[in-house]
Amino acid sequence: MHMNTIAFVGAGSMAEAIINGLVNGGVCLPEYIKVTNRSSMERLDFLNQAYGVSVTKNKQETVGGASIIILAMKPKDVKAGIESIKDYVDSSQVIISVLAGISSETIRKLFGKELSIVRAMPNTSAALQRSATALACNSAVTADQLKQAAGLFEAIGTVTHVLEHQLDAVTGLSGSGPAYIYYIAEALEKAAEETGLEKETAKALIAQTLLGAAEMLLTSEKEPAVLRKEVTSPGGTTEAGIEKLEEYKVSEAIAACVKKAKERSHELGEIFAKNALKEHT
Ligand SMILES: NC(=O)C1=CN([C@@H]2O[C@H](COP(=O)(O)OP(=O)(O)OC[C@H]3O[C@@H](n4cnc5c(N)ncnc54)[C@H](O)[C@@H]3O)[C@@H](O)[C@H]2O)C=CC1
Ligand SMILES: O=C(O)[C@@H]1CCC=N1
Known about the structure:
Blueprint: E1 6-9, H1 13-24, E2 33-36, H2 41-51, E3 54-55, H3 59-63, E4 68-71, H4 78-83, E5 94-97, H5 104-111, E6 116-121, E7 131-137, H6 143-154, E8 157-161, H7 167-175, H8 177-194, H9 199-219, H10 224-231, H11 237-247, H12 250-276
Parallel strand pairs: 1-2, 1-4, 2-3, 4-5, 5-6, 7-8
Antiparallel strand pairs: 6-7
Bound molecules: 1,4-dihydronicotinamide adenine dinucleotide (NAI) and (2S)-3,4-dihydro-2H-pyrrole-2-carboxylic acid.
1,4-dihydronicotinamide adenine dinucleotide (NAI) is lined by residues 9-15, 37-38, 40, 43, 72-75, 77, 80-81, 84, 98-100, 121-124, 175.
């Protein structure tokens, strides 16, 4: 019988965002969370101090007996990461991978056994329980296991179920998405300073503007284009500003950005499937 613990293999920014959301959202007691990484005890000690979670470099201690094992290393480290835990994992446990691009089939082959594998694509807003997470799973996952995985991610934001092949598109959109928004925020801050506002003043105005617009998108039944038109008085300031966005083809740039990120997610899957599975096929 497995204890109801969650094991994190990988202790970087994504693992921390999820741990933060779970612990500070009161969803999971820290004593039920175990974390390991490749080598940095300093990083593990930081997570222990900050969130009260158990940390150890011992892989068996981390994953043995956990009901859920979350793979949170970089795609390039998946082979070594799985190699170090596979002997302590069995089919009663649920594997959740947050790795961009790496398919459930690659993960299954690396473990070398049939396992219930859920793939999740959250984002770093998990730290504030505001992640937009998409989930897909392999055929071994039972309805109860999927519900359990969904429950975990619902605790740190919203959950959307997609087909596994759609996860590349999700990664290019909402997995990477916070970075696009921060990029826009950086550009707005720079522009605000150039137009005579202090940095701190601009920062507060920008954050509240993004938050308000996001809430409008979430709560209004109107399409984004309609909401945009409501801000845009004929002959006014918004129209003048948006003319510049059109001139610089910002809409096309955003489309190219999301497509390129999606393609990269797909590529990561292909590259690592080929490299990681070399000795496994
Ligand atoms: N950062 C983000 O916004 C998002 C990241 N992801 C995915 O999450 C995963 C982790 O990304 P980050 O947290 O940003 O990376 P990171 O570089 O901050 O953390 C990676 C962690 O994995 C550990 N690690 C490396 N090799 C290991 C091994 N052999 N065994 C155990 N642990 C090992 C490292 O020690 C480190 O703690 C990636 O696969 C990424 O695709 C998914 C959604 C969003
Ligand atoms: O940049 C990356 O590859 C990861 C996946 C989604 C967000 N960060």
